[in-house]
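User: I would dearly like some help making sense of a protein record. This is the protein in question:
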Amino acid sequence: MAMIATSTMDADIALAEKAATKKSPLSGTIEFILEDGFEYGSDTAINDLVFETEALLKYTIADHLNITTAIVLEQIDSGENNKAYFFYKEGIALDYLLLNYTGDNFGFYGGRFQPNVYSFTYLPDLEATDLVEDEVEITDKLGFGGYVDIKSKEYGTHRIEASLFTADTTVLSETLITNSGGVSRSDGGVGNTEGLESFAVAIHGGNIPSLDGVVYHIGFFRQKADLIFDSDDVEVTDIADEYTVRIALQKEQKVSKDTKMTYLADYIHVWNSNGFDGATRDYLSGSLSVTKGKWTGAVAATYLWVDNEDTVAANNYQVETSVGYNFDSELTLTAGWTIDRFDGSTTREFFAELSKTLEF
């Protein structure tokens, strides 16, 4: 049963299960992606060919003690309109680097990570979650956290997780090849404080006998507002801590021997968005995929409602449909179409993606 990925720990669990059958202390997966997208709109026409790689690695130091990391090659910055780009401004970034202690029903971790409220997987190869990821995903954080697992044949499996964090302003926030510049204290932004003044708590689980195929996630976090700048780089004085709540449900249903359907609903509410007092945002996402044999068809949508005290409320959305075919040896070809409306501007994109996954 597929789970909604809610933290870096989900990837670590998969790596731990794989490492349990191996003698080597090093295990992991590497995914290679070649994607071409043609984006067009009222004043936009861009063809962008990118190559991306994601390596999830686990090194076992001793029983219950290990190091996990995610290293990605991705596009750091997009190009100008009305041009064609080939592998433009790609760079190597460190998504997370954690020292973990894993017990039978509990665990602790510390280092560079993505707090346990956002780690968006939804459905494979869907782009319609970019609106949420670009706006509210928490990245480049430094801190520590822990979790407790509760397992019951009658009530299912559940994980309660909590973490404390601040912005990672070390050299680990920078990228190689194309340097993003990293994160500094002077950049400001919510969660960028001297100490560990931001926190996240979450509960997620599944395997509930009365809710076959259903997994859930409920998360809440606060990011401390200390130094906030507006779009003109002027320091804002009317600031407030940002609070966010997320509720997500996913259900996987087997229709026949080689056919399954997966549904997802996800709601996010943000108070004092980006540290601006009174600014609110609401995100509502939904997706449906149908897998039959080696074929997968999917549709996904995300709607964003923005309400600021000084501006007129605005609605934004993303919608995507795609189809994919999974060849042998973990090779997948996906093609699709996306429409994206944000801040009054609408763009559309045709894309094709070829991906290959290696395990060791």
In short: Residues 279 and 308 are 4 Å apart (CA to CA).
